[in-house]
Structure formats: structure tokens, C-alpha cells
Amino acid sequence: MADEEMREAEAKQPAAGQPKGNAADAWYPASKKDRFILRQLVSKDFKLKYRRSALGVAWSVLNPLLMMIVMAIVFTKMMRGADDSIPNFPLYLIIGNTAFTMMSDSTNAGMSSIISAAPLLKKVKIDRFVFPLQKVLFSLVNYLFSMIAVVIVMVFYRWSPSIYLLWFPVFLVYLTVFCIGLSLILATASVFFRDVIHLWGVVLMAWTYATPLFYSINILPDWMRAAERFNPMYLLVTYVRRILLWRVSPGLMLNVGCALCAVVALALGVWVFRKNEHKFILYI
After folding, report:
1. pLDDT tens figures, 176-214
2. What is the average pLDDT across 119-130?
3. First and final C-alpha spacing in the chain
4. b/e sequence 105-142, b meaning 16+ C-beta within 10 Å
5. Domain coordinates of the chain in residue numbers?
6. Exposure of 232 by Cβ count < 10 A (0-12 exposed, 13-18 middle, 19+ buried)?
7. Phi/psi class of residue 88: alpha, beta or left (left: φ > 0; alpha: ψ in -120 to 50)?
8. Does residue 82 contact residue 103 with C-beta atoms inside 8 Å?
9. Sorting pLDDT into bands at 50, 70 and 90, what band is 169?
């Protein structure tokens, strides 16, 4: 009887080299563990991005400002591309570009997130979903910093916000959910087909020109204007421009369109990712 009690006591002791912990640690909820890892990964990416940078986070503000200045000069002075129906062309540019950049940066990073995390995934049991999600959240943080540049432009042109600014958090949800869904699809595809990483750059370039970011939709022929209704980024960019630039309500149909794009992208992304994630370890 004494021998059995001694064996049970030894079994409860941690093995040599393992950290000691209590029973609560052993039953730590997986969801809380994943949230902790998510915060740590976002923090790590943030520190790495601005490490050894003299201006640091200020680049998230300066970059969209400088891009807006260059594009405004090109399209208003050199190419005469500004439409008279646009009330403030520089603001039109920066609002569209920052939103599109959020999608571009998050999908580019999310696409290679599983491949980049291969050494960790081979050693530690962790929900693979965390890695594409973390890249999107990091891009969201950068996007929020870039909105300071939008505020600076609004102040410079004395463009006061309206009550419709209250729709901005809704827009952030639409954009973030859409980017998460797209990143999950791309992360899965890139694991099995590395060519996707190279092809996505071409797709983004075509998508940039297909979306009225630096030109007005009024210059497009009728059939292209009709096609824009099926362009998720056109809907999202129009949404944020309506509340910040035109200072009007986004409207029911635009809300339905953006919500539909976000939900469909997320549902498809989660389905594709969960269906194939068990095979990732064989290809990374």
C-alpha cells in the first residue's frame, strides 16, 4: 500500500527539465492560450517592423501622406485626372489608398504566415488559425496609425467630420473580416502551391487599377461601372469615403454589400483552412 502511494506521488511530480506548475496551468483554456499567443505575435511584429528606425511609428503616418502628395501632383497637375465631382481630391486619394493598403498588406503577410511559422508549428501544438489572424490584426494596427494621416489632411483642408463618422467602427469590422477570410484562403493555397505567392502580386496590381482609388468611377464605361458592384474593395472604399469625404450615410444597400462580402470571404476562408490544415505539416 505504501509503495502504491509513493508511485502515485512520483507520477504527479514534473519530469526533469520540465517547468513546475499547478493544476490550473494544466487546464488552462486553449482559447486564452491562443489569445495570449496572438497578442505576443502582434507585439513582436510591431517591434520588428520599427526596430532601428529613426522615425519608428511615424512612418505609418508619413508613408500615406507622401504617397498622397505624389499622386495628387501627378493626377491633378500632370495628367488632369481629378474629377470635378470629387470635393477634395487629396482626401479622396488618401482615404482610398489607406484602405486598399490595409487589404494588400494583410493578405500578403497572411498568405505566407503558415510557411513562415513552420519551425514553430513543427515543435509546438498551437492553433494554426492564429498565424493568419495575427497578420491581419497587425495590419489593422498599422491602418489605424495611418488614419492619423487622414486626420492631418482633413485638418489641413478644414474638412470637418460629420455624425456619420460613427459608422467607421462598422467599416473596420467589414474590412477586417474580409481580410481575415481572404488571408485564410491564401495561406492555405500557398502551403500547397508556392506559385500563389508570386501570382498574388500580379492580382493585387490588377485589382489596384480595377478599383477607383486614384480616378473617378465616372470615367468608366457603363459596363465597367456595373462590374464594380461585384468588386469588394470598391464597395469598402466607397463605404469609408461616404462617411469621411462625402459625409453622408453609407446606406442600407452598401451595408448589405459590404457585410455580404465580409461574411462570404470569412466563411469560405474558415472552411478551406479547417479542411486542409491537418495536411500543412506535410508541406511546410
Report:
1. 999 999 999 999 999 999 999 999 999 999 999 999 998
2. 81
3. 51
4. bbbbbbbbbbbebeeebeeeeeebbbbbbbbbbbbbbb
5. 16-282
6. buried
7. beta
8. no
9. very high
